[in-house]
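Milestone 3.1: sequence recovery, worked example.
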């Protein structure tokens, strides 16, 4: 059998001779796992000997890995990942099926990593704020109505002092609530069986009686009293037949508060957690970008 001839025309440091071909081999590239160890160690900012000490091997072993002369034992992989704060997917440079990061998201991550600690803190706070706003936006719709402490059909005093007696309350939005801007409590049984004593009614504030159609229910001040009544051409009617029609010669003595749009169910008063989210959302709408 003829001897295989070897090509020795290469330089000494050209690499190993491939025994199968007798020609210089190109040399193996450094395995991915070895390159990744170097990459994440340098990113972590630790020396080879520090990494070696933390996983219980010699410093030369890490050097041999990173230069491709050897590979880490499989039993050491969990410790390497723990020290470098990475996953096995990171170590082997393969996609993590539990994560889906787009190219644009990765670009943002890369930009974030280049920021100073102070600027990272600013971004973190902004993200927290935006996350809170998104949670708030998922909450039920609320509306702020003015609640008047004086009951309809109870003494009100001077109508000019009327608006001073209201305070804002938060209620869940419904078709009836969306039409209203005020809440009053019914006092008495003159509007039964539709409106009962103690019920809260929704009122849409309007200025003139011409805006209230005949046959509609309204809230009125007559003299020194407040009433919920049915508005007709010849006076204010109660739904309870036991009460007489309120007639008046001087229209200036009647002050229209507004149109009654419905009865407010007690469950429509918003819970505190939803109120807090509503305030967060609307406060940030006004203030977040006023930097």
């Amino acid at each position: 059998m003829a001897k295989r001839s070897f090509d020795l025309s290469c330089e000494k440091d050209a690499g190993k001779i491939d025994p199968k071909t007798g020609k210089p081999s190109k040399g193996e590239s450094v395995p991915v796992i070895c390159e990744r160890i170097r990459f994440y160690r340098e990113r972590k900012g630790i020396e080879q000997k520090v990494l070696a000490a933390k996983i219980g091997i010699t410093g030369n072993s890490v050097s041999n890995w990173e230069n491709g002369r050897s590979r880490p034992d499989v039993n050491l992989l969990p410790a390497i990942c723990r020290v470098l704060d990475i996953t096995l997917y990171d170590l082997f440079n393969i996609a993590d099926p539990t994560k889906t990061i787009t190219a644009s998201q990765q670009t943002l991550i890369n930009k974030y990593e280049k920021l100073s600690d102070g600027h990272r803190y600013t971004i973190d706070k902004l993200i927290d704020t935006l996350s809170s706003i998104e949670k708030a936006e998922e909450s039920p719709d609320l509306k702020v109505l003015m609640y008047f402490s004086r009951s309809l059909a109870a003494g009100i005093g001077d109508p000019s002092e009327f608006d001073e007696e209201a305070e804002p309350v938060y209620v869940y939005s419904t078709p009836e609530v969306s039409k209203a801007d005020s809440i009053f409590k019914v006092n008495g049984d003159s509007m039964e069986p539709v409106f009962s004593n103690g019920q809260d009614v929704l009122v849409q504030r309007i200025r003139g009686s011409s805006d209230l159609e005949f046959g509609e229910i309204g809230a009125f001040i007559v003299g020194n009293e407040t009433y919920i009544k049915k508005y007709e051409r010849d006076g204010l009617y109660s739904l309870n037949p036991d009460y007489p029609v309120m007639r008046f010669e001087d229209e200036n003595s009647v002050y229209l508060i507004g149109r009654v749009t419905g009865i407010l169910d007690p469950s429509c008063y918003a819970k505190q957690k939803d109120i807090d989210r509503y305030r967060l959302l609307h406060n940030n709408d006004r203030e977040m970008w006023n930097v």
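The chain has nine helices and eight strands. Residues 15-92 form a domain with the 434 Repressor (Amino-terminal Domain) fold (CATH 1.10.260.40).
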